[in-house]
Specification:
351 residues, single chain, mainly alpha, two-stranded antiparallel ribbon, zinc-finger, Znf_MYND, Sel1-like
Length: 351
């Protein structure tokens, strides 16, 4: 319980007017501030409260308030990143805020290149069953991010995907379906893999249609939706807006786009505009085997970007055509098929 310290009488008491705010116990103010932090639509909501008065400034940094802060409270813009912002996130992590663990973990791992710290923070969130943290760690394991190619751990990636999928993460469910279908890190089971892919598509459609923040567009309005630049075509013949990126992914994307963060020569960013993840070594991400112009950190980003834009842009790359022509003249008559066809319609090559 919080101590209810005796406070000095406000200046209004001198005029004979009582200040009821001074009479509110700290416990009650902390509860109200906790509700505010949980429903904050931006970091500014908390900042405006903290600069109101000294008492609010003190109580807004109470561990109970910080532990309840929601994802929007950590929607930090790249231009506002500073040492004080870093300290605020660390305070939230110390208070046990799972969203802060995941957000700061992503920033540390990919932006500040503190791989060990970032991975441990994401693991801390994953232990508390944070679906995004579980899926992000699965991507790290599948790609061997932060290490060499030999550091890939496909079985660990599949296990993390399975846990995230159980908690309702759609991209993790889709990734797991592809792993089963291809025998990637798990014994091959084509029928079960296809079933999971269908389930992922069904969950995706149900999530979109049940969300009050999105509108479902009929296929007859497909052209107008495409012109708006923010919609994609689902596997069920309907257009709907692309899902909103998590604040951590938005920060990653803006960090590298603004030039504050730099990646080594030859490394690439994930081509899904809502992801923001960079490669940590050469040829870490999968590349489209048809055009060779895009690359993805995961199947989830691949599937989303295919529906969002790449389906209309993908065209055969001349290099593949030349190599296939050369292979046609082999003595055994065999031709290497470089294109993997998936149920979602994407074509990617693992490097």
């Amino acid at each position: 319980m919080l101590c209810n310290k005796r406070r000095r009488t406000s200046t209004s008491a001198a005029t004979g007017i009582s200040d009821l705010f001074d009479g509110l116990p700290d416990d009650l103010v902390v509860v109200v501030l906790g509700k505010l932090s949980a429903t904050a639509s931006s970091p500014l909501d908390l900042v405006n409260v903290m600069i109101t008065c000294k008492r609010f400034n003190r109580l807004a940094l109470h561990p109970i308030v910080l532990s309840k802060a929601g994802p929007k409270a950590f929607e930090i813009q790249t231009k506002n990143w500073s040492e004080s912002t870093h300290r605020f996130l660390k305070l939230c992590v110390s208070a046990g805020n799972v969203e802060a663990c995941y957000t700061l973990g992503m920033i540390e791992f990919y932006c500040l290149k503190n791989r060990g710290t970032g991975a441990s923070l994401m693991a801390k969130a994953a232990i508390k069953s944070h679906p995004l943290a579980l899926y992000s760690l699965a991507i790290v394991q599948f790609n061997g991010s932060g290490g060499s190619k030999s550091d890939k751990n496909l079985r660990a990636g599949v296990a993390l995907c399975g846990r995230a999928a159980y908690l309702g993460h759609i991209d993790a469910l889709r990734e797991l379906g592809h792993c089963l279908q291809d025998g990637y890190g798990v014994p091959q089971n084509v029928s079960e893999g296809r079933r999971l892919l269908i389930e992922a598509n069904a969950r995706e459609l149900a999530y979109i249609t049940n969300s009050s923040l999105r509108r479902l567009h009929c296929s007859r309005h497909r052209q107008s939706a495409t012109d708006s630049g923010g919609s994609l075509l689902s596997d069920f013949g309907c257009n709907f807006p692309a899902p909103e990126a998590h604040p951590a992914n938005q920060f990653l994307r803006d960090w590298f786009a603004s030039g504050r963060g730099s990646i080594a020569e030859g490394l690439r960013l994930c081509s899904n505009s809502g992801c923001g993840r960079p490669e940590t070594r050469l040829h870490e991400f999968r590349r489209c085997s048809v055009c060779g112009n895009v690359n993805y950190c995961s199947r989830g980003c691949q599937a989303l970007d295919w529906k969002l834009r790449h389906k209309t842009e993908c065209a055969p790359f001349d290099r593949w055509l030349i190599e296939e022509d050369e292979l046609e003249g082999d003595d055994d008559g065999g031709v290497v098929n470089r294109i993997e066809q998936f149920d979602d319609g994407e074509n990617v090559e693992s490097e």
